[in-house]
Design brief:
Helix content: 25-40%
Radius of gyration: 41 Å
Number of helices: 10
Strand content: 15-25%
Order of helices and strands: HEEEEHEEEEHHEHEHHHHHEE
Number of strands: 12
Largest sheet: 6 strands, mixed
């Protein structure tokens, strides 16, 4: 075949609309890119590491919402005599305290965080305890050293990591400090019996203010066991526990809810007396106010009384004692001879 024939055949193929054969196109790899919505400036995407106990952690794309960006700290609104802006600032630690507001005071809010030990990490062990006063000032914030192997740190709920255990203290030391700090004071907590249980401590019932129980009792919420995050959202319009928990934030939030309803909730409790001013001290003060009469020598009750009265005569010269019985020797013969016959009279 000549070259001209080849050219003609080539032209014919193009005329018929057939395209020359080409290699298949390379497919472009799709990347998962989050799309930000213009109406949510507080929404950010952060690549975080999986904090589970797996030996091969993987990076996960998680959505983190800063709860403080949606809180109004400038409002002038009040509720039950309390400023909502002040309570919101207290929850997130934005308040500046005076020297008197840093003292423990009468009320202390407590919250604990636990980690998982035992089989499959189902048993809870105390890992962190935080205590704040009425104004939200931190009185205690300690990590607790674990005696058993931690199976699950529960970081996405507890906020505790293995690195926190490097500065942890022994359980007995933390327990002793908490007991001394809460003595003769009112403990405020949400389901506080769980906190006292992991601390292996007890506290007098009149000195406990459980916001979960009191909120249900006074019909603040329809639920019998409201969650703390729901109660704070309802009463203060603040979102907490959106991600990792903080025992300091939870304790402050519990105190904020209590302050909103303190006047109403305190009506069901008797006012506490000043520590050290109990009935025994009152009796001591009454006794001390009475004039004391010196007891003469060789006086006073010694041994067990026989029931017979005696008269003691003292002779100044010889200092001898003469006991004279008031009744005759045959005293039993006079029983029942009186004009009035009382109960239990006996004649012989």
């Amino acid at each position: 075949m000549s070259a001209s024939a080849v050219k003609v055949s080539t032209k014919k193929t193009f005329r018929k609309g057939k395209k020359p054969e080409q290699s298949p196109p390379h497919k472009r790899r799709k990347l998962d890119r989050p799309q930000l919505s213009s109406g949510s400036p507080a929404l950010t995407f952060v690549r975080s590491q999986d904090t589970s106990t797996s030996a091969f952690p993987r990076g996960n794309l998680t959505t983190v919402i800063d709860p403080e960006l949606a809180v109004d700290f400038t409002t002038q609104a009040t509720k039950n005599g309390e400023s909502l802006a002040t309570l919101r600032k207290m929850i997130f630690g934005r308040l500046e305290h005076t020297s008197t507001q840093t003292d423990p005071g009468k009320y202390l809010a407590i919250d604990c965080e636990m980690v998982g030990v035992g089989i499959d990490g189902e048993e809870s062990s105390l890992a962190r305890v935080s205590i704040v006063n009425y104004w939200g000032a931190v009185q205690l914030d300690e990590f607790v050293k674990q005696k058993e192997r931690v199976v699950d740190y529960r970081t996405k709920w507890s906020g505790i990591r293995p690195s926190d255990m490097t500065r942890a203290k022994q359980f007995e030391e933390v327990q002793k400090t908490v007991a001394a700090l809460t003595k003769d004071r009112i403990i405020v907590g949400h389901a506080v019996h769980n906190d006292l249980k992991v601390l292996l401590l007890s506290h007098p019932g009149p000195c406990i203010r459980d916001t979960q129980h009191l909120a249900a009792k006074h019909n603040v919420t329809s639920s019998k066991r409201p969650a703390l995050r729901n109660l704070v959202k309802q009463e203060l319009d603040v979102v907490i526990q959106g991600g990792e928990h903080s025992s300091v934030t939870d304790a402050r939030a519990t105190m904020a809810v209590f302050r909103l309803h303190r006047k109403e909730w305190e009506k069901g409790f008797r006012p506490l007396s000043v520590p050290g001013a109990g009935a025994s001290n009152k009796r001591k003060r009454v006794e001390s106010s009475e004039p004391t009469v010196p007891t003469p020598p060789d006086r006073g009750r010694k041994g067990i009384s026989s029931g017979l009265s005696t008269i003691v005569k003292r002779t100044p010269q010889t200092r001898s004692k003469t006991a004279v019985k008031t009744a005759s020797n045959n005293w039993w013969t006079t029983l029942g001879t009186s004009g009035i016959a009382g109960k239990g009279s006996m004649k012989l």
